[in-house]
Automatic annotation (TrEMBL):
<dbReference type="InterPro" id="IPR020472">
    <property type="entry name" value="WD40_PAC1"/>
</dbReference>
<feature type="repeat" description="WD">
    <location>
        <begin position="100"/>
        <end position="122"/>
    </location>
</feature>
<dbReference type="GO" id="GO:0010506">
    <property type="term" value="P:regulation of autophagy"/>
</dbReference>
<feature type="repeat" description="WD">
    <location>
        <begin position="53"/>
        <end position="74"/>
    </location>
</feature>
<dbReference type="Pfam" id="PF25178">
    <property type="entry name" value="Beta-prop_WDR41"/>
</dbReference>
<dbReference type="InterPro" id="IPR015943">
    <property type="entry name" value="WD40/YVTN_repeat-like_dom_sf"/>
</dbReference>
<protein>
    <submittedName>
        <fullName>WD repeat domain 41</fullName>
    </submittedName>
</protein>
<dbReference type="InterPro" id="IPR001680">
    <property type="entry name" value="WD40_rpt"/>
</dbReference>
<dbReference type="GO" id="GO:0005765">
    <property type="term" value="C:lysosomal membrane"/>
</dbReference>
<dbReference type="InterPro" id="IPR040102">
    <property type="entry name" value="WDR41"/>
</dbReference>
<keyword id="KW-0677">Repeat</keyword>
<dbReference type="InterPro" id="IPR019775">
    <property type="entry name" value="WD40_repeat_CS"/>
</dbReference>
<dbReference type="InterPro" id="IPR036322">
    <property type="entry name" value="WD40_repeat_dom_sf"/>
</dbReference>
<keyword id="KW-0853">WD repeat</keyword>
Length: 434
């Protein structure tokens, strides 16, 4: 087994990475800088195995080939910053086509064809900016959330609307929407004439502060987080509270308030029954099954963590305002470590807040015997600004975006070297040698 330093550098076992050979933990040893944006890049959306779309404060949407780093399309149409972006895959018989939906501060929504770069549909002069987008694939509709909650069909025709904010999909054609301190549950009903309506069926008023994060955990669970550090796990069928945690952390110095951010695992990742929570600059791995923190790192970055991802049962990744992207491995804790709260942390990234006056501090329990630690296996340093987000494409690499206006495509250096050697030998063979 190769040895790793804290910076992720490794002693190579062979000059060529062969199929079936054990790969090192951090193989991102080659990078490619992608230029095209001229302002902060905040969003990355995977279109397919080889394409990704990026967007940010310049109003541009760029489509990239993650194998080559080539810029495939430049989608121009928004006059202000992008506030939300998602993919919309519509099944058409045996074939399917993936489109992009974008929302902007210019109070417009656009549907794009990433294959051609054309804007297929657009909606202008909305009453307010859209802050989140949610696709309900089984109904072939999508939802936009801001000051209003609107349901649209594939032709960008408004089906119904309500006054609300952020939202998340729930079972039984239900949608949960955050409205100040409350969570409102709506049921989307499709009538016989194909018209749709949203009916309010329940209100959850258990938060003491404004709900700032709302997302699915699994088919039967969803979670919400408030600005004061409350985190509630809900049953998505009967709306009962399954877990409650009031998370407080020490303020090392006075700082401006930061929004609560979330880190939602993909459905394929949630089968591991772990949720990764970032609290300030710390990382906590929470087990849904045991309702305990099974691994943690109290200070994982020098600044607040902005985005996280569970790669497997034992590996995860995070990026931060400090400009770094870090890779972690869950390992046994050889010695007693720092205490961690055993309560439910959920999947939220809580920025530090000044709104803690008068709130009771939570007693920190002793470290349970089953607790483990997060060992740093790689530190990807390339951006000069805060890393807003990253998207993993497996063996094709990792794409990161930042406030420095750049995207960086991180590659497996040994694999890329091997591919270049194969291409060279193939070219020589075609030309009959030197």
């Amino acid at each position: 087994t190769s040895r790793r330093s804290r910076g992720g550098r490794e002693k190579k076992k062979s000059p060529v990475l062969c199929i079936g050979e054990e790969q090192p933990k951090n193989w991102f040893t080659e990078l490619q800088v992608l230029k095209g944006h001229f302002d902060i890049v905040r969003f990355l959306v995977q279109i397919d195995d080889f394409r990704c779309a990026s967007a940010g404060d310049d109003g541009l949407v760029l489509v990239w080939n993650v194998e080559t780093g080539e810029r495939l399309q430049e989608l121009r149409g928004h006059s202000q910053q992008i506030t939300a972006m998602t993919t919309f895959t519509c099944e058409n018989g045996p074939t399917s086509h993936t489109s992009l939906i974008t929302a902007s501060s210019d109070r417009s929504l656009s549907l794009w064809d990433p294959d051609t770069g054309n804007r297929v549909q657009t909606i202008s002069d909305l009453q307010s900016s859209v802050k989140c987008l949610l696709v309900l694939e089984r109904l072939c509709v999508w939802v936009s959330g801001g000051e209003e909650l609107c349901v649209w069909n594939t032709d960008f025709q408004l089906q119904c609307q309500r006054q609300n904010q952020s939202d998340t999909e729930l079972p039984k054609n239900c949608v949960a929407a955050a409205v100040d301190k409350e969570i409102v549950i709506y049921r989307l009903t499709v009538s016989t004439d194909s018209s749709m309506s949203l009916a309010e069926i329940h209100r959850l008023s258990d938060h003491q502060d404004r709900v700032r994060a709302l997302i699915n955990v699994s088919d039967g669970l969803f979670a919400s987080g408030s600005h004061a550090g409350e985190l509630i796990l809900w049953d998505a069928i009967d709306w009962n509270i399954l877990g409650y945690e009031h998370i407080l952390w020490e303020e090392s110095q006075a700082c401006s308030q930061a929004e609560i951010r979330l880190a939602a695992p993909k459905p394929s990742e949630s089968v591991h029954s772990h949720i990764l929570a970032a609290v300030g600059s710390g990382l906590y791995v929470y087990s849904i099954r045991t309702k305990t923190v099974v691994a943690y790192k109290k200070v994982a970055h020098d600044s607040n963590v902005l985005h996280t991802m569970l790669l497997s049962d034992s590996e995860l990744m995070s990026c931060s305002e400090d400009g770094s992207v870090r890779m972690w491995e869950i390992q046994d804790l050889p010695l007693p470590g720092e205490p961690a709260s055993p309560g439910f942390f959920g999947m939220w990234t809580f920025g530090r807040s000044n709104k803690q006056t008068g709130l009771p501090s939570k007693k920190v329990a002793d470290v349970p015997p089953h607790i483990r630690t997060l060992e740093l296996t790689g530190d990807l340093i390339g951006h000069s600004g805060a890393v807003q987000m990253f998207a993993s494409f497996g063996e094709n690499g990792l794409l990161t975006c930042s406030t420095d206006h750049l995207l960086i495509l991180w590659k497996n250096g040994e694999r890329q070297s091997h591919l270049r050697s194969l291409a060279l030998f193939q070219k020589l063979e075609e030309n009959g040698g030197l």
